[in-house]
Amino acid sequence: MAAPILEMQSITKEFPGVKALDDVTFQVAKGEIHCLVGENGAGKSTLMKVLSGVYPFGRYTGEIVFEGKVQEFGDIPASEDAGIAIIYQELALIPDLTVYENIFLGHEVQEKGLINWNETIKQANIMLKKVGLDTNPASKIKDLGVGQQQLVEIAKALSKNVKLLILDEPTSSLNETDVDNLFVLLRELKKQGVTCVLITHKLKEVIEISDSVTVLRDGQTICTLDAKKGEVTESALVKHMVGREIDNIYPPRESKSSEETMLEVKSWTAVDPMLGRALLKDVNFTVKKGEIVGFAGLMGSGRTELAKSIFGNPDNYQIKGEVFVKGEKKNFKHSQNAIEAGLAYVTEDRKGDGLILIQDIKQNITLANLKEISPKSIVDSNAEIKVATQYKDSLSIKTPSVEQKAQNLSGGNQQKVSLAKWLFVKPDLLILDEPTRGIDVGAKFEIYTIMNDLVQQGMSIIMISSELPEVLGMSDRVYVVAEGRITGELSIEEATQEKIMHLATAH
Amino acid sequence: MTFAKDLQKVLKENIREYGMFIALFVIIAFFGFTTEGIFVSARNISNLLNQTGYIAVLGVGMTLVIVIRHIDLSVGFLAGFLGAVAAIAMEFWHLPIWVVIPLTLVLGAFAGAITAFLVAKMNIPAFVATLAGWLIYRGAILVVTESTGTIIISSDAFNAIGNGFIPDLSFLANFSPETHKLTILIGIIATILYVISAVKDRKAKKSYDFEVLPRNIFLLQLVFVSALFIGLTWLLSGYNGLSWTLVVVLVVVVLYHFVTNKTVLGRHIYAVGGNPDAAELSGINVSKITYAVFTSMGALTALSGILFASRLQSATTTAGTLFELDAIAAAFVGGVSVSGGVGKVTGAIVGALVMMSLTNGMNLMGIGISFQYIVRGAVLVAAVIFDVATRSQGK
C-alpha cells in the first residue's frame, strides 16, 4: 500500500440511542480509487459527514489524519480548504445559474469584492476541459443531462484544488454511457494524482474500478480488500456486507396464506413528470390473502414510489398499468379511494408525510377514518379518546395520555401511532414501508408481533424493507426490486441474503 | 395550597391560550386607568365592540386561511367593493335588503372560490394570487363608484346592522327604563347554557374516566366566565344594549367555533395545516379543503363589507383600505401559528379586540395616528415572538 493520504482512526459517532459509528478505522492510499461499501445504515454517509466537517470536531471521538497532519475540521469550508470535496447523490447545483457560475459558486474569482467574469469563464473552460465536458459554460445547469451535471460538480471540486474527491452514489441516476465516461474520468484524475473515494451499492462497478475496498457493517469496519491481490470479488463483497447472523428477533408464525388473491398489479409503469424519468418499469406482482410479502431492494430502487403510485398517486406520476383488488379492477384517483377499497399505507417517513407532529396522539390515530367516530359529520370527542386509548393499550404505545403531542414521542412510539392510524381504517391490505426504520430492537419485536397477529386475522401485508434479515425473518414471499423493476421473486425457502443482494445489485 | 398549585399548573400548561386574554385585560386596565374610566364606560365599550365587528369577522376567516398555510391580501378591497355593490343594488337597482344581503354573500363566496382555484388548481402562491386580487378589487371599487362618488345608503334596515341595537322587551317598558332588559336576559340565558354544557361535558368525560380539570379550578373557570358574560351584558344594558353588529359577530363566532372544533371538516382543516402531505395520504382532499377555506373567507369578506358600509351608511371609494392587514394582525395576535396548523377563531376575536382597543384607547388619550401605527406594529411583533417562544418550549 502506498503512503496513506487519509487515515481515520477509532472514529465513534453516537446519536441519541444509536451508535452510528463504532470505533471505525478507514485508510485511503494516495492516488488510489477506494470504494466504500455496506448496506443501508452501515454508517457510510455518517463517516463521510465526519470527514467533511458536517459533524464538526468534538461531536465525534477519534482522529483524522490527512496528508500527515491531524485535522480538526469545524465545518465544511475547513475540510474543503484542506483539499477534501464530497459530491452527494443529490447534486448541489443551482439549476437556474450557468455552468461557470456554479463551478465558482462560493469561491468566486474576485478583485476587491467585484467578480471578474471574464477570468471566471476562462478558468471554467479549463476545468471543463479537464473533466472532458464539451459544453458552453454559459448554458444553464437545468439544460444539462444528469451525467453532465455530475461532471460540472467534479469540475467545481477540481477548481478548489481537490486532493481527495469523495463521490456518494455517483452512478445511481446515470445511464451506462455516462457511467463509462465517469469511470474514464476517474482513472484520468487518478493519473493526475487525485485520490478518489467512491461510495456505491453496485458491486459490478466496485469490481470494475476499485483499487481497494473497505466494507462497513452496522457502524463497524469489517475489512479492507485489495484488488491487486484479487480479493475484490462479488461473493467476497456480499459475504462481508451481509455476513451477520440473523438474530432470534423474529417471532415465529404459521403461514396461513390462502389462494385467494388480495391485490394484483399488472404492467405498472410510472414516470415522474418533473424529472422526466421512468421510476417504475413494467412491474407485475400479486399479494394473497393472509400473506406477508417482502419487497427487498436498495434505497432508491423504486419501492416507495411503487407503493405510493398504487395508493392514490399523491405525487402525480404519469401511470400506466392495472390494479386489481380482490379481482376487481380499480382506478384510484386519490388516496381516499384506495382507503375505501381496503388499502392502507404506513409511510417510511413518519415525520414527513406520516404524522401531524403538532397534533396529539388521538387526532393522529383517527385522522384517516374520522367518519367512523363522527355521526352526522360531528366528531364525538369522547368516542375518539376511547378509540385512541384502545390502540394505545393494544399496541402498548408508551405515553401518559392520548392527548400527548406526537412530537413528544420516541421514534418507536411514533411508528406505533402511525400504525394505529392505519389499523383504525380496518384495511384488508396493509402496506408497511420500512416499518422498523430508526427504532430500537424492543420496539421492532413488538411491531413484528403485531404484524403476525394481523395476518393471522386474515389481513395481507406488503412489507417494504431494506434490512435483509427483516425481509427473511418476516416474509412468506419476497420480491426484489432494482432500478424500478422487479428483478426476482423468491419463496421464503429459497431466499437467502446473498441471493437477494445479487438480485438487488444486478443491473 | 393545592388550589394555588393547581392554578399554577393549569396556567402554565395553557399559557398560549390564556396569554392573549391576559394581554387584553392588561390593555383594558391600562386604558381604563389612563383615560380616567372613559375607556371602560358603557358607551365606549359598546362603540369599541361595534368598531371591531368588521375586522373580527375578517379575522375569523383569515385565521383559517393562515392555519392552512396560506394568506389572503385581497380581503380589504374585496370588502369595500362588495359593500359598494350592495349599495348600488339597493340605491340604483332598488332591490330589497333581503335579496341584497344574500346576493352579496354569494358574490363574496364566488370571489373566494376564484382565489382557491388559483391557489389549489393553478398552484399560484396565495400571496401572489391575492395581491393580484388586491389590485383588481381596488380598481373595481373605483370603477363602480366612478360616476357617483360616495353612494349614500338610504335603507334604515340596512344601516341598522352597523348602528342599531336589538329592541327591548316591550311589556317591561316601564320597569327600570334606563337598562336594556333583553340584553340582561340574554346574558343570563347564555351564562346558564354555558354552565350546563360545561358541567355536562365534565360529567361525560368523568364517566369515561378521562382526565378533567381539578374541581376547584373548574369552579373558578365557571365563575370567571359567568362573571364575564354577566358583567359585559350588564355593562351594555346600561347603553342601548346589544348591537346588531355584536349579534352578527357572535353568530359567526359560535358557528365557526363549532365547525372548527366539532366537525370532520374542521379537523380536516387543521390536519391540512399541520402536515399537508400526511393529510393527503390519509385520504383528505387538500384541494377541496383549500376551496372550502377560501370560499368561507370570501363570504366573511362580504359580511365585513356589509357591516362597514352599514356603519358608514354609505359606500365610499376608499372603503376597505388596510382591512386585510388588520385582519392578519388580529389572527396573529389571536394566536394563529406562523407555520400553520394551529389557531382558534375565538383567538381572532380577542386579537381583533386587542388591536381595536389599542386604536380606541390611544384615540381617547389623544395620541397621534403616527404613534398609533408604531405601537400596533410593536404589539404585533410581540404577539408573534410570544407564539414562537411558547411553542419552542414544546408545549
Could you please describe the fold and organization of this structure?
The complex is a heterodimer of chains A (507) and B (395). Helices cover 33% and strands 27% of the residues of chain A. Chain A is α/β, with parallel strands linked by helices and 507 residues long. Chain A folds into three domains: 4-242, Rossmann fold (3-Layer(aba) Sandwich); 256-342 and 427-507, Rossmann fold (3-Layer(aba) Sandwich), CATH 3.40.50; 355-425, no CATH class. Chain A is globular and about 70 Å long. The model of chain A has no long low-confidence stretch (mean pLDDT 87). Chain B has 395 residues and is mostly helical. Chain B has one domain (2-164, 243-392): ABC transporter involved in vitamin B12 uptake, BtuC (Orthogonal Bundle), CATH 1.10.3470. In chain B, strands 1-2 form a two-stranded antiparallel sheet. The longest helix of chain B is centred in the middle third of the chain and has 27 residues, at 181-207. The mean pLDDT of chain B is 90.
Question: Can you lay out the helices and strands and say which pair or pack?
Answer:
The complex is a heterodimer of chains A (507) and B (395).
Chain A: E1 4-15, E2 18-29, E3 33-37, H1 44-52, E4 61-66, E5 69-71, H2 76-82, E6 84-87, H3 99-103, E7 110-111, E8 114-115, H4 117-130, H5 146-159, E9 164-168, H6 176-191, E10 195-199, H7 203-209, E11 212-217, E12 220-226, H8 234-242, E13 261-272, E14 277-288, E15 292-297, H9 303-310, E16 318-325, E17 328-330, H10 335-340, E18 343-346, H11 350-354, H12 361-366, H13 381-394, H14 411-423, E19 429-433, H15 441-456, E20 460-464, H16 468-474, E21 477-482, E22 485-491, H17 497-505
Parallel strand pairs in A: 3-10, 3-11, 6-9, 9-10, 15-20, 15-21, 18-19, 19-20
Antiparallel strand pairs in A: 1-2, 1-4, 4-5, 7-8, 11-12, 13-14, 13-16, 16-17, 21-22
Helix pairs in contact in A: 4-5, 8-17
Chain B: H1 2-13, H2 15-34, H3 42-67, H4 75-91, H5 97-121, H6 126-145, E1 151-152, H7 156-163, H8 181-207, H9 215-237, H10 244-262, H11 264-274, H12 276-281, H13 286-312, E2 314-315, H14 323-333, H15 345-365, H16 369-392
Antiparallel strand pairs in B: 1-2
